[in-house]
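Objective 1b of the project was to move from sequence-level analysis to a structural picture of ligand recognition. The entry below was assembled by the postdoctoral researcher (A.K.) and checked by the PI before modelling. It contains the amino acid sequence of the target and the SMILES of the bound compound, flavin-adenine dinucleotide.
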Amino acid sequence: MSRPFDVIIVGAGSVGTPTALYLAEAGLRTLVVDELPSVGQGSNKRAIGGLRATHSDAAKIRVSLRSLEVFATWEERYGDKIEWHRGGYAFVAYREEEEKSLKGLLPFQRSHGLIIDWLDRKQLLEAIPDLNPKGLIGGTMAPQDGNASPLLAVHAFYRRATSLGAEFRFNEKVTGLIRTGGRVTGVRTDKGEYSSAAVINAAGPLGRGVARMAGVDVPVHPDSHEAAVTEAVTRFLEPMIVDIRPVAGSANYYFYQHDTGQVIFCITPSPPMWGLDVRETSSFLPMVAKRMVEVIPRLKNLRVRRTWRGLYPMTPDGLPIVGESEEAPGFVLAVGMCGQGFMLGPGLGQLLARLVQGKLTEEDKDTLSYFSPRREFKGQEKLG
Ligand SMILES: Cc1cc2nc3c(=O)[nH]c(=O)nc-3n(C[C@H](O)[C@H](O)[C@H](O)COP(=O)(O)OP(=O)(O)OC[C@H]3O[C@@H](n4cnc5c(N)ncnc54)[C@H](O)[C@@H]3O)c2cc1C
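Corresponding predicted holo structure:
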């Protein structure tokens, strides 16, 4: 067995990689183990790159605001291009139901520091001239939200983490946890054993299996979502557009124009597609294209270049599960990111670094109460 680490992270994905960076920044000896050949090869690279603090609960707003600071300043601080673009997020309303629910959230969102406004039909059309005006009521606009490349970002976090001394082992699968007197004190892999003061489970859609190794059950279920990218065109669209109207076969869908000109989009199938299957389907493009062209008719001229499918690590209430396990001290859960692991990653990494060091603030403790593994999982995220 090697010299003990302070922290071992299972999973070099959207959450594990920035967490390693903030642990290494705090001077902790950190090891990240991933069964895949390089960083960000799980759900991370399947994300479409949306980064928002527009949420309906205090915890995700707070964590994402921290993440947005990191993404927005990364290039200027460290020089890596991550294709960050601050285009904002627009949730559009074509029916009174959505108008009511989006407007209803505004006072709460603002009270937690989110900059967000309601734009009426005319104002929204000024901001997004290509929106279909027919039936449009208005929508919310959060101008500080944006987007970036999940692979470029995770690689940038990886480079900084390793430059600060964090170690990564790829092609190595965690197969069990080492326990000493009830406490989790390391991991067993298909290649060896490593000991540490704490182990963080950041195994994404496979997080439930890793938690079971500690005798802990967490309700994280992989749910598959499909996405696509078009050819690149001159910029015509600033914000991410989110349409939360449920229709037969799908719930919300969202799309934006990336920094490099492509429109990237995905849809939430309804009912959900549970399981680990990531083969593309023939039903996705006809379903999503119809809905997108209804909202921005001009999109009909764009050619789709590629589709792919990936996994959301879903929880019953749409909130992540983060915190030290009571059943297995030393074992920290950072799983169940649903459709938001990329946007939560850096903010959560900072929070986990404080948790591991015993430096939680009162606000952190409140944030973690929303994400508690011991909560009842009763509520339902409104902007999932
Ligand atoms: C189509 C689509 C679009 C999305 N769009 C967005 C978006 O716009 N914005 C956003 O924020 N999120 C988005 N998401 C969600 C986002 O991809 C996930 O929430 C996020 O990647 C989860 O991060 P994670 O670190 O928990 O998991 P991952 O990134 O999957 O990392 C987990 C890692 O753990 C490793 N692992 C698992 N088990 C073991 C083991 N036993 N031993 C060793 N390694 C192990 C895996 O190999 C993997 O690399 C999207 C997802 C999909 C599918």
